[in-house]
Write a structure and sequence with these properties.
Spore Coat Polysaccharide Biosynthesis Protein SpsA, Chain A, seven-stranded mixed beta sheet, about 35% helix, alpha/beta, single chain
Length: about 300
Amino acid sequence: MQNGFCVILSKYRLYQGITLYRSLAYNYANFKMFILCVDDEAYQICEGLHLENVILLKPQELNDERLAAAKQNRRLNEYCWTLKPFFLEHVLNKYSFLHNVIYLDADICFFNDPSSIFDQQPDYSILLSEHDFLEKNSAVEQTCGKYNSGFIVFKRCPTSMNALRWWAERCIEWCSDSVAEGRFGDQKYLESMPYLFDGVRSITTPGVNIAPWSEGKYSFSNRNDKVFVNNNKLICYHFCGLRLVSRDRFALLLGDQKLNSIIHTPYTFVVQQTISLIEQLFPNFNGYFVESHFQDKAHLYEIGR
């Protein structure tokens, strides 16, 4: 069974996107990664890194003129969200050897082998990742949605193709990072999928897509050089709200914004290695950023301290 892991990268997500690739390559042998580069800098650097088992794409290859219009009238993050279902459908159509496509946000990192995700629920057509908000933040689900669109699995089947086309139409109609009429970006639409399509399941495998919005439910530990959450291996953590300020500093923007050395220290060390590698090949590249509306709320940390 071959799985295609799909990530969308701009130059502002490049350091973390390459770190995601490295974490997957370390933990999982049988994969292909498809990287959709939304700007020339991301494409040139990914190409220059000669990443094994990676296929690079550009938005023009998705062959939908509506996406060009979306690029003109949407913010970068909204444009990337809009691309998502078109990207996944394209990969499934073009690469017939794939059994699944898995969409991943660039700020996810694998700490263990993800094989169990696919093995434990064989009757799925689509696997969705629930946010599983802390009780004190449960109201956020009403605006942001029950499911997180940063980790989704689509099996090769007619149901998945129909769902992707439906999702693409919704995202073309409206995909904003504001909240309006029960919609939020590409994400809130996912709540309709279990009612519209057969075989849509929530991921039940423990340790998948743990994130700042849910990590308070877990105790993190190291056992024999593996990271555990409670008594289960941490398969992947979603570093949503982590921003790289420089090669030596990072900011946490979401959750309690406290440093968790079990996950943040190894992750940021590998990110720093990625930055050094890119600096050697592309010394003038700068992929650091923090959105202006977050700058006053950011908690800053030194990498390795």
